[in-house]
Amino acid sequence: MFKGNHVLTPVKFEKILVVSLPERTDRRDGLIIASAVSNIEFDFVDGVHGNTVLDKTLPPGDHDHLANSSIGSWRAHLNAVAEVVHKNYSSALIMEDDADWDVRLKLLLKEFAISYHALAQTPDATTLDFNELPFTQMPGISPYGDDWDLLWLGHCGMQLPSRGLAIHQNDESVPETQYLRSWDINESTPLAIYPPHTRVVMRQAQTPVCSLVYAVSQRGARKLLYSLSLQKLDSPYDVMLRAWCEGLDGNEANVCPGVLPQLFDHYRRAGSKTIDSDISEPNQEIRAKAETLNIRWSVRLNMEKLLSGNATFDDQFPDTL
Questions:
Q1: Gap between the Cα atoms of 121 and 139, Å rounded
Q2: What is the pLDDT of residues 69-78, one digit of tens each?
Q3: Is the pTM of this model over 0.70?
Q4: Which residues of 256-279 are buried (b: 16+ CB within 10 A; e: fewer)?
């Protein structure tokens, strides 16, 4: 047995897969450099153009309203999931090629693993304090615990459930509440009820949006591939992923822990916003400078310093209080 945050075991996934269109060399090169300076190894899974997906390969469901870009995204993500199943990886991290993360990512993943592992072994707990986590059994398969299907680590926002929370206050990697944003830029963060610099790990993610970065266990990958590739297609991939996690439409819920603020967010380059997405409708606005929401010491925005060995990192969201 060990007492939660007193032991920081390695938190590697067996495989990391990045979904990326081969022609988006800008995104591929950016992700390659960001991963290199973070000592992260990965393999690309080629993105898919929806007009190359045969109609007869689509599962049942009302999918005529889906754009080709959504069909392509659905198939590309499931190709990554299929790779996990086919190669029998015990776990894999799947990310999109515009992901960004904090320089301190590996520490943050360790703290997430400790928090969720404690939550998984205390099913009756409403809230746990990260600094006073209970004694738990060592995990046998994954440092994240042995009972999960999908870890929702990078997203565009989620809500907080009323129970099953591990509260980590005074986390210096979390921006002040005023800076926290979701897909709805005008929406106030659910974390506003906590002191500044609070991160919350939840036993089950609630209403997550976007499939930017998530991890799957082998158990979860098998169930996910069966459900989303063969049983039903009626919504964009991230919407179906949420329904799969939450057990909507009469399906059994799956074990999908989440975290807020997210550990990964979208990197947005300076210039035309038309380059932001290969799925959404083009946005003709101009972005004055590059940004990544919710990430203080962004790897992408500190690239020149990381390449030169300068460890005095720029903070996107310096404290004001």
A1: 10
A2: 999 999 999 9
A3: yes
A4: bbbbbbbbbbbbbbeeeeebbebb
